[in-house]
Design brief:
CATH superfamily of the largest domain: Succinyl-CoA synthetase domains
Order of helices and strands: HEEEEEHEHEHEHEHEHHHHHEEEH
CATH topology of the largest domain: Rossmann fold
CATH architecture of the largest domain: 3-Layer(aba) Sandwich
CATH class of the largest domain: Alpha Beta
Radius of gyration: 63 Å
Helix content: 40-55%
Number of strands: 13
Largest sheet: 5 strands, mixed, barrel
Strand order of the largest sheet: 1-2-3-5-4
Distance between the termini: 176 Å
Shape: flat
Structural class: alpha/beta
Length: about 475
């Protein structure tokens, strides 16, 4: 049967497949997904991109003559809804969607993660640190990238063309897919920990979709770049691709080749700079020599250089004149001061004597004033003392007793001021001027009402005749 089968050409089979797909999905489809790798061709104006979700992706083409052409506002990571026809691009044998319109529905998951990490690292200050300057002519360059990718070939071509014998150390690492971020971090740390580390590090890869470049949007890669003790250049993707690594690095290069150009200057450029500096240095030396020669010629023609002894004589004579003037001034000043001192001595003695006499007189006057004041104060104090003694004597109860009065107290020492306080049988003490005696109250003269009010408790038994006697 295989001998009788007539084979189809690839073009014919592709055309049949295209017809089946276009017929099966006619008149068109609506597909929702996330934009990836969006590009507009400059010459034609057509746009090409991929529409993806977590499980698959499909190519899309958006032609300029379409009425709903979105323009340059579409960005990778946006969620959109695409309307179009399913077709086949026969030259490549790929099926795709010929898009008619695009409607935005939100931001894709990767873009959300990108913006969240960007905000976090910016708040921590990783983007705002002081950027380090790149070395003018590095002796050694470290590169963290895939050893088999196009990016390393481009960088090596640039460096060899500009400086053929420069030392390059490659830290191989995956730059896409699972485990790529960890290998990039390990490469940066390896170059930093070398016994003789490089002067600058380039971290990067070639272009690709947002998913392809995602390793350079990982937090661990950003922190490794920030912690590097060596200046880091981020060279990820094309000029339009922006990653977190670009924000953290000391320098962002639009492409890997541009990074190599930033690090390694062309040999011709250095030679030109050296030549310019040499010319400027020679001109500066010549001008300095010309200026010095001119000054020497002017000085050599002066009177001083022709007859230097004349200048020496003039200065010597001037010194002698100054010396003589100084001696005269010193002698005249001393004589004048001595004469003024002699004339002032008698006046000073007379003034001092007058001052001493005035002080003695004043001292005598003050002594008299002090004695008079002391006597007056003493007399006033004595008079006050006599008055106080008289008042004290008037208030003295003993003086009252000397005039025939007595003070009567109870046995408890309380002064009896009223007859109502005493009753028959109470023992009282009578104090006179020259002593006291005890007695027994036989009867009181107070009224009965007042006596009841002041009555004291009666003794347990009547007093004996012996107790009723005075004692």
């Amino acid at each position: 049967m295989e001998d009788t089968r007539k084979p189809e050409t690839v073009s014919a089979l592709t055309t049949r497949i295209r017809g089946v797909l276009e017929t099966s999905f006619a008149p068109g489809v609506w597909v929702e997904g996330e934009i990836s790798n969006f590009k507009v061709v400059t010459g034609s104006g057509h746009a090409y991109f991929s529409l993806k979700d977590a499980g698959a992706q499909i190519a899309c083409a958006f032609f300029r003559f379409t009425t709903h052409m979105p323009g340059a506002d579409i960005k990778d990571g946006e969620k959109v809804r695409v309307r179009g026809e399913v077709t086949v691009y026969e030259q490549r044998g790929n099926y795709q969607i010929a898009a008619r319109s695009i409607e935005r529905t939100g931001i894709g998951d990767l873009m959300v993660r990108f913006e969240e990490l960007k905000r976090k690292l910016k708040a921590e200050g990783l983007f705002d640190r002081e950027k380090r300057q790149l070395p003018t002519l590095p002796r050694k360059i470290g590169i963290v990238t895939s050893p088999t990718g196009a990016a390393i070939r481009d960088m090596l071509n640039v460096t060899r063309r500009r400086f053929a014998n420069i030392h390059i150390v490659i830290a191989p690492a995956l730059v896409q897919g699972a485990g790529a971020a960890k290998q990039i971090v390990a490469g940066i740390e390896l170059l930093n920990n070398m016994p003789e580390p490089p002067d600058v590090i380039i971290v990067g890869r070639g272009g690709g979709s947002m998913e392809d470049l995602w390793s350079f949007n990982e937090e661990e890669v950003a922190r490794a770049i920030h912690a590097s003790g060596i200046p880091v250049i981020s060279a990820v993707g094309h000029e339009t691709d922006v990653t977190i690594a670009d924000w953290v690095a000391d320098v962002r290069a639009p492409t890997p080749s541009a990074a190599a150009e930033l690090v390694v200057g062309r040999k011709e450029d250095f030679e030109k700079r050296f030549s310019t500096m040499q010319t400027r240095l020679v001109n500066a030396v010549r001008n300095a020599v010309r200026h010095a020669r001119s000054r020497i010629e002017i000085s050599s023609g002066s009177h001083v250089f022709r007859k230097p002894e004349t200048l020496v004589r003039q200065h010597s004579q001037r010194i002698d004149n100054l010396w003589q003037r100084m001696e005269s001034a010193l002698k005249g000043g001393a004589s004048g001061r001595r004469a003024r001192l002699d004339a002032a001595t008698p006046r000073m003695a007379a003034a001092i004597g007058s001052s001493l006499n005035a002080l003695r007189l004043r001292l005598s006057e003050l002594g008299g004033d002090v004695m008079h004041g002391a006597e007056t104060a003493l007399a006033e104090s004595a008079h006050k003392l006599e008055n106080l003694s008289a008042r004290l004597e008037t208030l003295n109860p003993t003086a009252v007793l000397s005039r025939g009065y007595a003070i009567v107290k109870g046995e408890d020492g309380v002064i009896i001021k009223s007859a109502a306080q005493a009753r028959a049988g109470d023992k009282v003490v009578t104090q006179l001027r020259d002593g006291e005696f005890r007695s027994l109250v036989l009867d009181g003269t107070a009224s009965s009402a007042k006596r009841k009010a002041m009555r004291r408790p009666k003794p347990a038994s009547a007093p004996s005749p012996e107790q009723q006697t005075l004692f």
